[in-house]
Amino acid sequence: MKSVFAASLFLSLLLCAACSQAPEGAGADAIIAAVPGGDISADNLAQSLRVLTSDEFEGRAPDTPGEEKTVEYIAARFAEAGLEPAGDDGGWMQQVALERSEIDGPVAARFTTRAGVRELVQGEDIAVETLYPHDRVDLRDVPLMFAGYGITAPELGWDDYAGLDVTDKIVVVLVNDPDFESGEGDFGGRAMTYYGRWTYKYEEAARRGAAGALIVHETEPAAYPWATVRNGRNGPQYDIVRKDAASHHLPMRGWMQREVAERLFRESGLDFDAEKRAAQVRGFTGYPLAGASASLAFDVRRGRIASRNVAGILPGAERPEETVILSGHWDSYGVIADADDRGDRIVNGAVDNATAIASLIEIARVFAAGPRPARSLLFLAVTAEESGLLGARYYAANPLRPLDTTVADLNMEMWSPDGPTRDISSWGVGKVSLERDLIETARREGRGYTPDENLEAGLFYRADHFAFAQAGVPSITIGPGVDQVDGGVAGGKAARAAYFERCYHQPCDEFSDDWDMRGPVADTRTVYRLAADLANRGDWPQWDEGSEFRAEREKSAAARAASN
Ligand SMILES: [Zn+2]
């Protein structure tokens, strides 16, 4: 990991030196084919963005009239671009069966400690939810147990649950992993591992038979503010339909504000920060919070819905059975309960992730306008990413094209409207050859590559490509760089920080005609060229030695060899 980082950083430093001397595309090495169809068009990208982010699309939440408009729009644009339908039964849509679960009415919640009873306000103090198959949560005076970071990692000799029986108890756990704050250790230091993700913590607590889990929110290790937590739990929750839902899901799960946890620990005779530090030391094991219990009651409205992935294909000229997937998620957060200070309740999801859908449509257009690549290209707009990568998970479980002969998934997220950059990036460190392919493609264009500098956010586990990775398919999520042509790295980082602080998953993530489209155009062009390269090559991208996904891919390599 470190050497990849160092090599890439060195490379991008070299390239940035080159870039500052020559305009984009004019470097000595930058002998690259013209993009067919008159190049990636800023106007086309802006037009798609204008429509997808309009209030008429109601923030593109699954299972709303906004979904209908969104998927119909994408399908129409795929058709207009020249793709063929690749969904179920010869159509554009892949039906995605989801469980839907929504809190119905008020949440009654309180902590009881030695200091007395304290009422908790949903959205302010806590943000709870459930995906458990029941119609009411009614937990009364359930003991609270502190389980540190909530991690059981046998390969690292770490078990926060050792000797702790949390059956039918509520566990209180910390966000991220034990070495985030020290920056050094077995859990990747500042980089978040899967053990740091809230999804993992819920899964582990459910395996332990807990009645619930409450994660203590802290902005830095969570990598997002409380508003993001609250807004993300304001509406319905979804999962793919599971036979084992009752054992897979906790009866109740959620977050609490750090201040609420501090008080809870204090009233249990403990200091939160001291206990947190203790939980960062190997050998820590969890314990009951003396005298503390929680009661939570709320009704749940449940149902099954069908959302949709949109799929279009450009069959390959020579090896059509081999497929390169380009993907992005179409969903955003819809209409939320709490208006922002401008009175806006619609999370239009412009940067996240209408930018990627606009690129998907535009890349389809230029491919269809040019010579047909050897391999097939599948354009996949997936649903319910924001609910847990569900459209991508559904696809990976029910692929429209065999995964054995799926070359790669190139997923796109969140292009930047803040001005063009000298570089491009990808999320997380994936230990996958596609990262080097991306670096090489960018280099030929006279652009650099900046590895994810925000490894603490655990982005590798927070984008749709992760669902493909778990199924063994080499995959990356490509995102914008940070080294602005006009503002440098400082400008790029400031713009990124401002977006995450103010607009990420909030109503202010809106498109405006003032957007600088040069960044999205350049990034879309790089993705097009990488896809063209992969679709014309004969080899198969690989997970590197040490990647947790390599073993799964080796099975599909064996399957390909057997069928040849
Ligand atoms: Zn996104």
TrEMBL record:
> Which InterPro entries does this chain map to?
M28_fam (IPR045175), PA_dom_sf (IPR046450), Peptidase_M28 (IPR007484)
Top-level taxon: Bacteria
Q: Where is the composition biased (Basic and acidic residues)?
A: 547-557
Keywords, sorted A to Z: Aminopeptidase, Hydrolase, Metal-binding, Protease, Signal, Zinc
**Which GO BP annotation is one of this protein's?**
proteolysis
Identify the stretch annotated as signal peptide in this record: 1-17
- Please indicate if the UniProt record lists Chloroplast as a keyword: no
Query: Segment Disordered: which positions?
Result: 541-564
Q: Name one GO molecular function term.
A: metal ion binding
Keyword Ribosomal protein assigned = no
- The Peptidase M28 domain covers 309-516
> Which named protein is this?
M28 family peptidase
Species of origin: Luteimonas marina
